[in-house]
Amino acid sequence: MDIGQIIKKRREELGMSQEELAKKAGYKSRSSINKIEVDGRGLPQSKITAIAKALRTTPAFLMGWEETEVFALDHVNSCFGESAREMLSNFQKLNESGQKEALKRVGEMVHIPQYVKADPVVRPLRPDSRSYLQPVAAHERTDIEVTEEMRQHDDAFFDE
Amino acid sequence: MNYDILLEEADSDGIIIKEKPLIGNDGRIRGDQILIRQNMSGCQKACVLAEELGHYYTTVGDILDQSDVSNRKQERTARLWAYNKMITLEKLVAAKEAGCRNSFEIAEHLEVTEEFLLEALECYRTKYEKGLQKDNYLIFFEPFNIYKMAE
Question: DSSP secondary-structure letter at B145?
């Protein structure tokens, strides 16, 4: 992958638009970012740092010198928390049989109640928090002129 | 489809229906509560209830403001539900079979108000245009008439 593709991929991972990135990296318009993403043109050294910062990564990563692993760990961290990250990076250091053993041990722990999270508490939304979805409609009389007082009078019956 | 049957169906779906001395409305719905105006004939109540049930099953949110186009669409959908509940092509043919000669008699036979029937027919007209053939019957909508085809 060249630098343009890496920038694009990272930007999309962050759910950022070209405009946002342009703004954050100090470019005037989206088209400069587009050019860079298409063929890596027009990217002076000085801007790499700015873009890396905007994409919350390092210039080395953008250049493709750093493995994406670092990045995946960051991702794990944001999804599952610090301990998941730590566990995964330790796991990476193990050899094949070590990884097997680690999987086995963790797998066993799942069966020990002491170590397992309680069943997730299912908390249904309170009905009133969904009240905006409730049908509210009126079949007004057409044979007479209906006034606001009449409507209020009728609505009062709902709360009886 | 008369009022009592509708009431029972609604009740089994957990809908609360109250008949109250409403002034400005024939029918009103909020959530699972439906209000029906007292002092209406049975078939009037049935038609109003069918429309409110139409809202219960098809409407989402507050559509009281009928100047909003999407609310009017929902209103139309609810009414279509009611027409399909109370009046179907099959029932129109059955009414003809039973000897009804005009819309008034058909409305009486189907236990709906004539106004409701005419509104439903208008809906069918927009759907089927001039008319259609249903089994051995020709149903025309402008003007409304049902003819039995010669064997």
Answer: E
Contact B1, A128 (CB under 8 A): no
- From residue A147, give the alpha-carbon distance in Å to each of A141, B22, B24, B48: 11, 13, 7, 20
Burial class of B30 by CB neighbour count within 10 A (0 to 12, 13 to 18, 19+): buried
In the chain, the amino acid numbered A115 is: Y
Helix (H, G, I), strand (E, B) or coil at B131: strand
Three-state secondary structure along chain A?
CCHHHHHHHHHHHCCCCHHHHHHHCCCCCHHHHHHHHHHCCCCCHHHHHHHHHHCCCCHHHHHCCCCCHHHHHHHHHHHHCHHHHHHHHHHHHCCHHHHHHHHHHHHHHCCCHHHCCCCCCCCCCCHHHHHHHCCEEEEECCCCCCCHHHHHHHHHHHHC
Residue A127: pLDDT over 60: no
User: What is the three-class DSSP state of B53?
Assistant: helix
Closest CA to B95 of B151, B42, B144, B44: B144
Is it the case that residue B82 has pLDDT exceeding 90? Answer: yes
B23 to chain A, any CB pair closer than 8 A? The answer is: yes
Q: Does B14 touch chain A (CB under 8 A)?
A: no
Cβ atoms of A11 and A21 within 8 Å: the answer is: yes
Q: Which of B24, B33, B56 sits opposite A154 (nearest CB)?
A: B24
* CA–CA dist B62, A135 (Å, integer): 6
Using the predicted structure, report yes or no on whether residue A120 has a pLDDT greater than 70.
no
Chain A contact set for B27 (CB, 8 A): 138-139
Pairing of strands B33-37, B16-20: parallel
- Output DSSP code: residue B150: P
Look at B75 and A137 and tell me if their CB atoms are within 8 Å.
Answer: yes
A75-99 pLDDT, tens per residue? Answer: 777 777 788 888 888 888 889 999 9
